[in-house]
Structures are given as C-alpha cells and as structure tokens.
C-alpha cells in the first residue's frame, strides 16, 4: 500500500497548490451553480485534473470516480476523489476546506488521504494499518457519553426535503452535548472524529466522495461509522453517523426515533 499512498499524498499536495494559489482571487472566480446551493469553480476542476493526472500516470488501469468529472474506467481498484471539499467556505474565504482521496478495492476502502492545505495537516489511513496525522498515529476520543461531547454535523442545505427530520435530530443532541459544530467540510469533520477533536458526527445526504476517505480514517482510528440503519451502506445512501464507539452508540439510540423511513 505504501507506493499507492505516496502517489495519493503527492496528488493531494499538488492539488493543494492550485487551491492555495487561487485563494486571493476567489472574488473574481466565475462560479457555476450545479444545483441549488451547489457550486463549482475552475479551482475545483483544476485541482481535480491535477489529482487525476497524477493517479492515472501511476495507475493507468484503475477506475476513477471524481466529483466534477464523474466515473471513468472499470477496475477492481477505484479512486474516489473530492478535489475541494468545502467549496462554499473557500468561496467566502472561510478557512476550512480539504482535499479528499480514497481508494476502494472490490468494495472495501483500503486507503485514505484528507489534506487541509491551510493548516498543512495530512490525515492518512491504510486498511489494517491505523490512521495518522502528519505521520503520527491518531485515535478517536475517549469521551464516554454525549454529556460533555463535542459533535460535528452538516446541514442539509442542498436538498431541503429533510430539513424537519434534521432539525429534530439536532434537537435531541443540542441539550445533551457540550456543543455542535458545522464547519463545512465533511471530509475534515470525519478526520476530526478520527483524531479526537470531535467525539461524533452526523449528516444527511452526502456523496461518496465526501465520505470515503474520512470513513476509513474513522475506522482505522478505532471509531465506528454507519448509515442511519447501522449498516455500512453510507457510500451509497450518503447518510452518516460516526463517533468513538460509546458516543456513536448513544448517537444512534438518540437518532433512531427521528429517522424517517426514507432515510433508512
Ligand atoms: C460539501 C461539504 C459540506 C457538506 C456538503 C458537501 P463540497 O462538499 O462536505 O460540509 O455539508 O453536503 O456537499 O460541495 O464543498 O465538495
Ligand atoms: Ca464535498
Ligand atoms: Ca467538492
């Protein structure tokens, strides 16, 4: 896995150069609205093509699923890429965004890279080999209950069908926890669960490229991540609950009465 990791890290760092270079020009960047509240700029596209070129050169036979260009190729190995996770933050100069690259082998996540270009924090994981932040081993927090826990979340701002269900979920956690953060990059939120900065995280309606790398980080750091039925279909349905094992169990219990059938 080491050579693959080296290439994936190189791809993420190369993309981060593009993202950082454009930062002081975001006011002048043409923004295309893909769907309501879903934006794309040439930065997302350039960062993505830098990543794809690097991966393709090293692994010409692998398939690639990338947010801006979709699916290419067919192989047991599939790279899942979000070139800029947190585009809304980026466009507003709000300093929380990341690059997310994961590798799946036959339905199993085997490698993860999440890179925060501003803090130069590199989160990596390989299946069975633990999770790391800048090459130092990380683990989920030891927080044992929701009381005192810091949770991360994302709002369902693109598809607002689930706003009421989401607000009910929020209401069950709000009085019980020490705080809830909506930072704006799901990949980094999951990386923060992996390194114990957040005790848990939940969000409705993500895409596989938002989740794939972060999910492996959480698992390799000793955490649990599932969908709202406590199954592992989160890459397909986009619904996520993650946390250290104790906080995860309590989150699931609290969420259960508020999960509409359509999200199960
Ligand atoms: C978004 C971020 C955000 C989450 C959204 C995602 P994007 O990704 O991860 O935190 O709430 O659902 O779509 O569009 O900036 O790549
Ligand atoms: Ca994303
Ligand atoms: Ca993105």
Task: Describe this entry's structure for a reader.
Helix 1 runs antiparallel to helix 2 (42-58) and helix 5 runs parallel beside helix 6 (208-220). This protein has 8 helices and 15 strands. It is globular and about 50 Å long. The chain has 264 residues and is α+β, with helices and mostly antiparallel strands. The protein folds into 2 domains: 2-138, 2-Layer Sandwich (Fructose-1,6-Bisphosphatase, Chain A, domain 1); 150-263, D-Maltodextrin-Binding Protein, domain 2 (3-Layer(aba) Sandwich). One calcium ion (CA) binds next to strand 5.
Summarize it:
The protein is an alpha+beta fold and 264 residues long. The protein folds into two domains: 2-138, Fructose-1,6-Bisphosphatase, Chain A, domain 1, CATH 3.30.540.10; 150-263, D-Maltodextrin-Binding Protein, domain 2 (3-Layer(aba) Sandwich).
- Radius of gyration from the alpha-carbon trace, in angstroms: 17 Å
Cα-to-Cα separation, first versus last residue? 34 Å
CATH architecture of the largest domain: 2-Layer Sandwich
State mean pLDDT (0 to 100 scale): 95
CATH fold assignment of the largest domain: Fructose-1,6-Bisphosphatase, Chain A, domain 1
Give the oligomeric state.
Answer: single chain
Strand tally is: 15
* Low-pLDDT residue spans: none
Q: CATH homologous superfamily of the largest domain?
A: Fructose-1,6-Bisphosphatase, subunit A, domain 1
Distinct helical segment count:
8
Give the domain tally: 2
């Amino acid at each position: 896995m080491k050579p693959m990791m080296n290439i994936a890290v190189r791809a993420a760092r190369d993309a981060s150069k593009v993202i950082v270079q454009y930062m002081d020009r975001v006011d002048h960047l043409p923004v295309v609205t893909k769907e309501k509240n879903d934006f794309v700029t040439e930065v997302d596209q350039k960062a993505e093509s830098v990543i794809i070129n690097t991966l393709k050169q090293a692994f010409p036979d692998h398939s690639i699923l990338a947010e801006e260009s979709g699916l290419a190729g067919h192989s047991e190995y599939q790279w899942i890429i979000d070139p800029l996770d947190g585009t809304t933050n980026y466009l507003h100069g709000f300093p929380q965004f990341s690059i997310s690259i994961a590798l799946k082998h036959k339905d199993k996540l085997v490698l993860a890279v999440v890179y925060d270009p501003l803090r130069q924090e590199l989160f990596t994981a390989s299946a069975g080999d633990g999770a790391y932040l800048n090459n130092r081993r990380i683990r989920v927090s030891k927080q044992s209950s929701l009381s005192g826990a810091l949770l991360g979340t994302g709002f369902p701002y693109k598809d607002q069908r689930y706003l009421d269900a989401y607000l009910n979920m929020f209401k069950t956690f709000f009085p019980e926890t020490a705080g809830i953060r909506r930072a704006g990059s799901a990949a980094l939120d999951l990386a923060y669960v992996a390194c114990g900065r957040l005790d848990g995280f939940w969000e409705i309606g993500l895409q596989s490229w938002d989740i794939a790398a972060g999910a492996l980080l959480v698992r390799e750091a000793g955490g649990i991540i599932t969908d709202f039925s406590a199954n592992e279909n989160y890459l397909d349905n986009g619904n996520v609950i993650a946390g250290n094992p104790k906080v995860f169990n309590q989150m699931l219990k609290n969420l259960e009465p508020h999960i509409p059938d359509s999200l199960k």
